[in-house]
Amino acid sequence: MPEAPRQDSRTAPTDEELRRLDTHWRAANYLAAGQIYLLANPLLTEPLRPEHIKPRLLGHWGTSPGLNLVYTHLNRVIKNRGLDALCVWGPGHGGPSVLANSWLEGSYTEKYPDATRDAPGMELLMRQFSFPGGVPSHVAPEVPGSIHEGGELGYSLAHAYGAALDNPGLLVACVIGDGEAETGPLAGSWHANKFLDPVHDGAVLPILHLNGYKIANPTVLSRIPETELDALLRGYGHEPIHVSGDDPAAVHRAMAHALDTALDRIAEAQRAARDQGVAERPRWPVIVLRTPKGWTGPAEVDGEPVEGTWRSHQVPLSGVRDNPEHLRQLEAWLRSYRPEELFDAQGRPVADVLDCVPEGTGRLGATPHANGGLLLRDLPVPSLDDFAVPVDKPGTTTHEPTRVLGDLLAQVMRDTTDRRDFRLVGPDETASNRLQAVFEASGKTWQAGTLPVDEHLDRHGRVMEVLSEHLCQGWLEGYLLTGRHGLFSCYEAFVHIVDSMVNQHIKWLRTSRRLPWRAPIASLNYLLTSHVWRQDHNGFSHQDPGFVDHILNKSPEVVRVYLPPDANTLLSVADHALRSRDYVNVVVAGKQPCFDWLSLDEARVHCARGAGTWEWAGSEDGSREPDVVLACAGDVPTQEVLAAAHLLRRHLPDLAVRVVNVVDLARLLPREEHPHGMSDFEYDGLFTTDKPVIFAYHGYPWLIHRLAYRRAGHPHLHVRGYKESGTTTTPFDMVVRNDLDRYRLVMDVIDRVPGLAVRATAVRQRMADARTRHHAWIREHGTDLPEVAEWTWNA
């Protein structure tokens, strides 16, 4: 068991140490302000002129001084205590501060050698900020030491806890802006301390930074009485430590004391759990830091107060190029930091500025935990042969695909028991989604109270359930970004709750792929089940298959969507997803009994192909082109297509039918639009250019049209799928309501194959009559027609 961080509160910092901390803080403030304003003259070696100023002033000053204060003081305790630490910078647009500090400590120059730690490098640092071809204003992937983008607020604390899981020697500081603290995801994240295991996990130190304002309004937590805020945080299970003020010397002293106190408490809690076996949940510290917004910036501009108000949020002086008074104020502001004391004649930081900076990987910008691919080990995925279901004949036996997958995941859990680098997360649905086999290998993480009726709760468990999709997503993102593996299991309809979160993660991955120093991380894997077609008891509210539409709008080099039609194809897809890097993999699979169509070997070949014909299901003889193509994607659509093919064999035996199953939806895209896309030659060979294609799809039908609209055969493509017709009803009635059923598909074939409308009138009428019988039957019996419920491929 790793040692807890040592207590080190023997002596408070001396006045001289505090002076050097202030020197570092002033240097960071100077660099942060310079990035917002300066194109040239970075050291102010000559009077400031309009041509030294950027033509477009972009960036956010208001949060920067507080972030710089935190960075400075984290440097001190990391260096003094020998901590392994990571910081998550939550406030939006905090880029100037973290860029400034990473440049001061040297980690930025190590990643970007042109940004040397001297005057030319300082000019480059300032010029590139929020400038064409430069870096964004957020703490983005380009910034060393970051795992959190910060552009969309609310996710910092969840990311911090995800990073701390199974990292017992790591301290994760998390700066939370008071605007960010108003979001729902952040509010839910305060509950994450009930899941933090003081034995096997690291510590999270939230630092709630209250500077009073958002863009244009006061913030809730800054305006409620301190006693009320204190009670709120204590109610969440924290011990608050308050730091407030606007006098730098006093704040430095208070902040140093607060960090020492917090880290001593953390070390004692970890020692009690690890060495003494104390099982009681610790009350972890939280620091509440109150400093003025835009601290040390202009106090007043054009007669209006700025420092300490919302006016300092972005650019306090906006007319610098055209307004001589603004230019004069900017120069006075920048010179107030006394840059001549902070940097030598060549622009290098002086010794006092660097006195608090740790060395090597102890620097926040150089920690490998913020470049998790450096720490990542291959996941020990066991052989699929041990879990595959036997398939002697297609469509005669059934299994619950996710239950089969659950056995595989349980073995992954067992094989990572000592490594502790795999987690399964989900919103209270592991057993509901038939993955409960994992409980044989690991319980559910839980640090709160327990009762005798509880099942599978475990202080040291690695299955994480909380009824907040935001928190599940944030945990897993933080876990993956720091070099581990995982899977997110969710009801299909409610994964939409994290739509914007996955947007941000996809953008992070896309940008990271373009940075040679960022090592690939394990993919973010979704298992979406309890899906639209089998919400028999929950009904319309639980029926929404649109997450895949959302995902396929995103960066094609990052996103993948799979719809395995049975248990063995799910195993094959899961094996690929769990081993992959730098993707977002969305796997949609049912948890209800489903026909077994392919053996494991067949499944492997079919999944590698992504889309292909099932010759045994069609009625082609190879002597001519098919008359019609029946295509399918998804488990229920596959069953309906095969049942339709069965009916066509019986009623129209001379019709040449090709059956195509699609596992990888991106295969439908042109190759030039997605790495998995098919060439026109491949697509036309599979679907033909001029024959009717009846496509039964799991989700909204227009997605298939969007993916295939440029194909030559698109005018002949007819898609059936979910069209927002749902209720609490029988399984087959759901497909009938949405015109995805086997009888409707046969009618579609008759309607679209030239000449059949006249020749097969009687067959079409039988199909329509079957749908009528269905409606009457379910209303009388409450179950599906026997010919449907008892159907098998070899019936």
From TrEMBL:
SUPFAM superfamilies: Thiamin diphosphate-binding fold (THDP-binding). Keywords: Lyase, Thiamine pyrophosphate. Its EC number is 4.1.2.-. Residues 14-374 form the Xylulose 5-phosphate/Fructose 6-phosphate phosphoketolase N-terminal domain. It comes from the Bacteria. Gene3D superfamilies: 3.40.50.920, 3.40.50.970. This is Probable phosphoketolase. Its cofactor is thiamine diphosphate. It is an enzyme of class 4 (lyase). Residues 591-793 form the Xylulose 5-phosphate/Fructose 6-phosphate phosphoketolase C-terminal domain. Belongs to the XFP family. Pfam families: XFP (PF03894), XFP_C (PF09363), XFP_N (PF09364).
